[in-house]
Every structure is written in C-alpha cells, then in structure tokens.
Amino acid sequence: MRHILSRLARLLTLAAAIGAVPAHAEDVIRVSGIPDENPTELSRKYQPMVDMLQKQLGVKVVYVPVIDYGAAVSALAAGKVDFAWLGGFTHVQAKVLAGAKPVVMRDIDREFQSVFIANTAAGINKPEELRGKSFAFGSKSSTSGHLFPRHFLSTQFHIDADKDFAGAPIYSGAHDATVKMVESGKVQAGALNIEVWNRLLNGDKVDKAKVKVIWTTPPFVDYVWTARKDLPPATVQKFANAFLSLDANKPDDKAVLDLQGAKKFVVAKPEDFLVIEQVGRSTGLLK
Fold first, then answer.
1. CA nearest 62: which of 82, 38, 87?
2. In what order do the strands lie in the sheet with 135-137?
3. Within 10 Å of residue 204's Cβ, how many Cβ atoms?
4. How many helices (H) and strands (E) does the chain have?
5. 190-245 per-position pLDDT tens digit
6. Is residue 238 within a helix (H) or strand (E), and if so which, with residue range?
7. What angle do CA 151, 156, 158 make, to 5 degrees?
8. Which long-range contacts link 197-206 to residues 24+ away (Cβ below 8 Å)?
9. For residue 282, what is the enclosing H or E element?
10. Sign of the C-alpha dihedral computed for residues 35, 41, 43 and 48 taken in this order
C-alpha cells in the first residue's frame, strides 16, 4: 500500500509539473499574415523578416500560411499562431473575437491610402462616374481593398456599392488580383492598397496603357502586427523590440524594411483602431 501511495504521489507531482508548462512554450514562435497578395510575393516578403525574427528572438520562428483573411483571424484566435500581420479591419475582428492586441506597425500605416483604378477603355475619370460600372474590391475583410473604399464611396460620393454598380461588386481576394481584373477588362474599375499599386507600377507589372488611377483616398490607419491575447508580456515586448530596433542604415535591416515598404516600425496602440471599428460597424461589415 505504501508503495502504491508513493507511486501515486510521484505521478501527481509529475502531473503538476506538466500542468505548469504553458500550452505554447515560446521555444517556437509561429507567425502568419493575411494573404493580401499572391503566394510568391508573400514568400519573398516574409522570409527575410522570419530570418530577422529568429536571430533577434533566439528561438525558431515559423511562418504559417493561411488561405484567406478569415483564416488568419481564426488562427490567431485559436492560438494556432502567436503573431499575425493583419490589416486594420482584420485586427479589429481579432480583437472583438478573441481579445487580440496590437503590437507594432509600419510608419506608413498611420496614414495609409487606397487608390481607385479604372480600365482606360471604360471612360471613367472620377469616382462619380463609377455608377453603372462593374467594380472589384479585394477581400471582403480588407481595410484598404474594401472597408474604406466602400466607406468613402458612400460618404463622399453617395454611391451604394451594393446597388449602384453594374451588378454586385466582385471580390478578387487580393490587391494584385484586383489590378489584373481591371487590366483585363473583366471589371471596369476597382480599389486597392496604394503600396501594392505603386510596387506593381514601379516594377512594370501593370500595363499603364490599360489601367489608370482615378482617385486616391484620404489617409486612414491600416496594417499592424497583432499578438494573441494570452502571450506572455515579455514575449510580446521582445517581438516588438525586434521591429522597433530595425535600422535603415544597416544593410540587413534595410532589406527587411524595404520589403515591408517601411522606413521604420512604430508602437501600435488599441486607440489607433477605434475609427476602424466605428467604420466597420457603420458599414455593417462588423457585427
């Protein structure tokens, strides 16, 4: 009997020790992000950043691809990833769904913009002329590819995206896909993130004879690195510091910053996203 009790005591001690280990010990950090561009481009942008994080954090960092914007939010909420690069609207969705927290954002994300583009054969020169034309947004959960373009159409031009186009708007799923749809003539116009547009334009990846910008939106807050709710504060701070310490004067750091379209990263705060939550609710996209 004494032997059985002794063995039971050892088992209870072992169980208590196992229970004290976090469900996700931070010996591996899993990161993800919304698939706002094609997989090849995302891989090109993420790999140097993952290498940088692994070096700065001193642990293995794994990039976890997801199939769409909703999957990025769900993965963060379910604890399948630790940090996710989200748009402002998907960040708000993750906050409402699972208490996710903002960490850092690029300098450009405090005053981000979208562009409205049109096929040159469509005869569209300004947003007011989009009525009765076919139109493409990006993902339904995109801040710069849907939420704010829809918001500005309504508030500045009194265009109801669900009623005033030639049929229901098409959702391309990604910013570069929107450009290709407009370029090919599948739709006459569309809206996307200005950073992607400029990169495609500067890289000669869009036919300038077939696509033109007809309007650039006012600025709004957008992309942010978001942490799952239950991460240790020390882990979140180390992650933040890895980005905040990037120095454009150092070649390796500059390579990461250039791929992210930034000169530096800055601290992100919950109040930065209050307007996005308000716009999300006013458009009915956030319940």
1. 82
2. 170-171, 135-137, 189-193, 114-119, 211-216
3. 8
4. 10, 11
5. 999 999 999 999 999 999 999 999 999 999 999 999 999 999 999 999 999 999 99
6. helix 233-244
7. 85
8. 197/115, 197/117, 199/261, 200/176, 205/176, 206/179
9. helix 274-282
10. negative
